[in-house]
UniProtKB/TrEMBL annotation:
<dbReference type="Pfam" id="PF01113">
    <property type="entry name" value="DapB_N"/>
</dbReference>
<comment type="function">
    <text>Catalyzes the conversion of 4-hydroxy-tetrahydrodipicolinate (HTPA) to tetrahydrodipicolinate.</text>
</comment>
<feature type="binding site">
    <location>
        <begin position="96"/>
        <end position="99"/>
    </location>
    <ligand>
        <name>NAD(+)</name>
    </ligand>
</feature>
<protein>
    <recommendedName>
        <fullName>4-hydroxy-tetrahydrodipicolinate reductase</fullName>
        <ecNumber>1.17.1.8</ecNumber>
    </recommendedName>
</protein>
<dbReference type="InterPro" id="IPR022663">
    <property type="entry name" value="DapB_C"/>
</dbReference>
<keyword id="KW-0457">Lysine biosynthesis</keyword>
<dbReference type="InterPro" id="IPR023940">
    <property type="entry name" value="DHDPR_bac"/>
</dbReference>
<comment type="subunit">
    <text>Homotetramer.</text>
</comment>
<feature type="binding site">
    <location>
        <begin position="141"/>
        <end position="142"/>
    </location>
    <ligand>
        <name>(S)-2,3,4,5-tetrahydrodipicolinate</name>
    </ligand>
</feature>
<feature type="domain" description="Dihydrodipicolinate reductase N-terminal">
    <location>
        <begin position="1"/>
        <end position="99"/>
    </location>
</feature>
<feature type="domain" description="Dihydrodipicolinate reductase C-terminal">
    <location>
        <begin position="102"/>
        <end position="230"/>
    </location>
</feature>
<dbReference type="Pfam" id="PF05173">
    <property type="entry name" value="DapB_C"/>
</dbReference>
<dbReference type="GO" id="GO:0009089">
    <property type="term" value="P:lysine biosynthetic process via diaminopimelate"/>
</dbReference>
<feature type="binding site">
    <location>
        <begin position="71"/>
        <end position="73"/>
    </location>
    <ligand>
        <name>NAD(+)</name>
    </ligand>
</feature>
<keyword id="KW-0028">Amino-acid biosynthesis</keyword>
<dbReference type="GO" id="GO:0019877">
    <property type="term" value="P:diaminopimelate biosynthetic process"/>
</dbReference>
<feature type="active site" description="Proton donor">
    <location>
        <position position="135"/>
    </location>
</feature>
Length: 233
């Protein structure tokens, strides 16, 4: 598989190394200094760039008939627009706030737990996410997906960054050192507490998940998610 890498930062570099180990070729590396892109030179684009750059990177690929895997967070106010452009161009797209297998299992666990806890009014939920100090967005994309999973299975209506409100899930964002990504969901009552937590020890899980998604999407058309790639029912 020939890959066009959009964003050659921490994730781009890790994906390049791992993809080559799996026998793939990095045909193009696109970063800030790129002036021209030969879209015909790659089968699939993997975008781990910046909140400002992602929408343009992704939709230019659709216009050039290239399927896209995007892990960039912080640009989702334009997600629906990107979906429409993908469909108009008969292309294929997977966005995931987190590509790691562990976090995708954690997403499922979170939904199940939210469903059970929604019966118990004495518990209140809160979330904490910790990431490295270079991270541009807050809360993390993963925290937003987790909050959405809770809202779909409870009476919580929205989330709030570093604040509290009626029917709102408080998300506390912490930026610290070189932390790759830690997410904790806590339910607390007067008598006890329940916590579930995912800790990324490094970025390998994110990179492998994105490459698996790229391998999976070849030859397909449409909008998919990691649940499709991992065959979660
Ligand atoms: N979904 C997931 O599993 C994961 C998502 N992420 C997200 O991926 C994104 C990138 O993360 P990192 O690699 O850690 O960041 P990074 O800051 O190390 O790399 C981003 C790269 O994008 C480049 N860039 C800037 N403008 C560009 C443009 N117009 N076109 C192409 N590249 C451009 C920057 O120069 C930089 O090299 C972030 O939004 C982060 O939140 C990170 C890890 C896992
Ligand atoms: O910026 C990061 O590093 C990460 N971003 C993603 C997010 O915003 O959830 C995924 C992972 O936690 C690492």
């Amino acid at each position: 598989m020939k890959i066009g890498l959009f964003g050659y930062g921490k994730m781009g570099k890790m994906i390049a190394g791992m993809a080559e180990e799996r026998g793939h070729t990095i045909a193009t590396k696109v970063d800030l200094d790129t002036v021209e892109i030969d879209y015909a030179s790659f089968d699939v684009a993997i975008d781990f760039s910046t909140p400002e750059a992602a929408f343009e990177n992704i939709t230019n690929c659709f216009k050039n008939n290239v399927p896209v895997i995007s892990g960039t967070t912080g640009w989702l106010d334009r997600y629906q627009e990107a979906v429409e452009l993908c469909q108009q161009n008969d292309s294929a797209f997977i966005y995931a706030s987190n590509f790691s297998l562990g976090v995708n299992i954690f997403f499922e666990l979170n939904r199940q737990l939210a469903k059970m806890m929604s019966q118990l009014n004495e518990y209140t939920v809160s979330m904490e996410e910790i990431h490295h100090t270079q991270k541009l967005d807050a809360p993390s994309g993963t925290a937003i997906t987790l909050a959405e999973g809770i809202m779909e299975n409870s009476s919580y209506m929205d989330w709030q960054l570093n604040g509290t409100g009626e029917n709102s899930i408080p998300i506390h964002s912490i930026r610290e050192g070189a932390v790759p990504g830690t997410h904790t969901i806590a339910y607390d009552s007067e008598v006890d507490g329940i916590e579930i937590k995912h800790t990324a020890h490094n970025r390998k899980g994110f990179a492998l998940g994105a490459i698996l998604a790229a391998e999976w999407i070849l030859g397909k058309k449409g909008i998919f998610g990691m649940r499709d790639v991992l065959n979660f029912t």
